[in-house]
Amino acid sequence: MSEDPETYAPETCCHCDGLGCLYCNKKGTVMVPQPAQKCRQCGGDCCIYCGYTGWERPLKEY
After folding, report:
1. CB neighbour list of residue 40: distance below 8 Å, 6 or more residues apart
2. DSSP letter string, 34-52
């Protein structure tokens, strides 16, 4: 059995409201698994659990 790979799509960074910041690599968006969900710890207000992006399980881009 093979699992379907997660589908990621860009969502507006909640920390900078799309203006670009350190947490979204100055892009204004972060890639998050779909369907997108706000961080369950902070509700989208940005915290250490969402990497200050406001989204649940953002893709870390290095």
Report:
1. 56
2. SSP-B-TTTTTS--GGGTT
Entry pTM: 0.85
Q: Two tokens at 36?
A: 């997108």
**Which of 3, 7, 61, 4 shows the shortest CA–CA distance to 34?**
7
Q: Which residues contact 50 (CB under 8 A, 6 or more apart)?
A: 39, 41, 42, 56, 58
- Write the pLDDT tens digit of every residue in 16-50: 999 999 999 999 999 999 999 999 999 999 999 99
Residue with tokens 């100055």: 26
